[in-house]
Amino acid sequence: MAPLSPDHTINNEFHAHASDICAKLVTVNRGRREAVVLKLNKPATIGRNPQRCDYVVAGTFVSGIHCTLSAVRSPNGGVIVSCQDLSRNGILLNGHRICKTVVILMHGDIVEIPDSRTFTCVHVWRDRADKIELFDPTPPQQPSHKAKTVNIGKYLVTNQKLGSGSFATVHLALDTSHTARHQVACKTIRTKKGCDVGQIFKEINILNGLKHPNINRIYDTEQDDQFIFIFLQLCTGGDLFTYITAYSDKGTHLCEAEAKFLFFQILVGLEHLHSKMISHRDLKPENILLHAPGPYPRIVIADFGLARPRAYQETFNVCGTVSYLPPEGILALDQEHLKYVGMPSDCWSAGVILYIMLSGSHPFDNDSTFDSSSNWLSHIHASHLSQVSKNYHRDEARLKAKIIAGEMEFQPHPWNRLPDAKNLVGSLLIHNYQLRATVYDAIRSCWINSERDKLLITYRNQVLGRC
Question: What does the entry list as the binding residues for ATP (predicted)?
Answer without folding.
Answer: 187
